[in-house]
Write a structure and sequence with these properties.
- By secondary structure, this protein is an alpha/beta fold.
- It has 12 helices and 10 strands.
- Helix 1 packs across helix 9.
- The chain starts with 9 loop residues before the first helix and ends in a 5-residue tail after the last helix.
């Protein structure tokens, strides 16, 4: 009964592969029953979905804030008055990005998601600020590594995109719950559909038995969504919420590992089917900050509206197993 995402002509398919997301246009998505649609759509920008908002007194934390969607999200939230903590993989990247925001509204933090000691250090730094986190946006990620790479024996995309963010977010849950209405936004992708059969290959997290750049990317994005949904369940009864989002097809450095012909294709024809960076940042910014989303938890958003994901993303048993395995692999456990 679940409508599948549309498969277009070869040019659209090539663009979808480059973006790691979905074919263009909201017709590719089905909205869950009973949830009213908001006023924004695929062409909305981060500035438009926050127009008129005063975020003074609120704190946002964004991973991967030094470029692309993360930087645009940081810029817009700071413009609306929020104080932002922006992470980058190196001090230089984080500091340069935050300094460019100006007015002392952005604070840099170093977070290397492939290094659990860096995750722990960044978590400690944020906890030391002793401030509630109103918006925790898990934006950073990598995609389609051409060859198998591992971190501590785990395939790198799964480690960086999921495990690193899992450890970071769980370590900051008390700060999010301390906010009047803390929101956690996890960047997934419609590429979660590319995950292997069964969803998460718990017996092959090393990737050694089988590795495919797109399937393993899809597995990591499915893990992002499952994490958000299980987190939403665990946050029931609190003022905090958790949701997953699909930003769209955007030509950012996320696709830097793609073949040269696909990169050239995107540069020449991307205008026909790709979102701009301001449009790509809209959904995560909307879910993090707009009052229309207050109280919604456990959903998957695209084009600034809740949509129906692959059924595997709503598999409660799979989400619970992933949580347990993630705690075991990271050594980070929720209180």
């Amino acid at each position: 009964d679940r409508r599948q995402f549309l498969v277009g002509a070869s040019t659209v398919a090539a663009g979808a592969a480059l973006g790691g997301c979905s074919e263009p246009g909201s017709d590719a998505f089905v909205n869950p029953p009973g949830i009213p649609l908001g006023p924004f759509g695929p062409k909305s920008t981060a500035e438009e979905v926050t127009e008129g908002l005063d975020l003074t007194g609120k704190t946002a934390l964004i991973t991967g804030a030094n470029s692309g969607l993360g930087y645009e999200t940081m810029r817009v939230l700071a413009m609306r008055g929020a104080k932002v903590i922006g992470t980058g993989r190196t001090p230089e990247k984080a500091e340069k990005a935050c300094e460019s925001i100006g007015n002392g509204r952005a604070t840099p933090a170093v977070l290397e998601l492939s290094d659990l000691s860096s995750v722990e250090s960044c978590t400690s730094q944020v906890l030391g600020m002793d401030t509630p986190i109103d918006m925790l946006i898990l934006n950073a990620g990598i995609m389609a590594l051409p060859e198998l790479e591992q971190v501590d024996g785990i395939e790198r995309q799964f480690f960086v995109n999921h495990l690193g963010h899992f450890a970071f977010a769980v370590g900051l849950l008390d700060q999010v719950k301390a906010a009047p209405a803390g929101r956690i936004v996890v960047l997934s992708s419609s590429g979660h559909q590319w995950a292997p059969e069964g969803g998460i290959q718990f017996d092959n997290l090393s990737g050694e038995r089988e590795y495919d750049p797109m399937k393993n990317y899809g597995q990591s994005k499915l893990a992002n969504g499952l994490f958000a949904f299980e987190l939403a369940r665990r946050l029931e009864g609190t003022n905090a919420t958790a949701n997953a989002v699909h930003p769209g097809i955007i030509n950012t450095n996320l696709g830097r590992h793609f073949p040269k012909w696909q990169l050239a294709f995107a540069k020449m024809f991307g205008w026909a089917f790709m979102k701009s960076v301001p449009e790509g940042a809209a959904t995560q910014t909307y879910v993090a900050a707009n009052p229309l989303v207050e109280g919604l938890s456990g959903y998957y958003f695209a084009d600034c509206n809740p949509v129906v994901p692959d059924p595997r993303m709503e598999d409660a048993a799979l989400a619970a197993e992933l949580w347990d395995v993630s705690e075991e692999l990271t050594g980070v456990r929720a209180a």
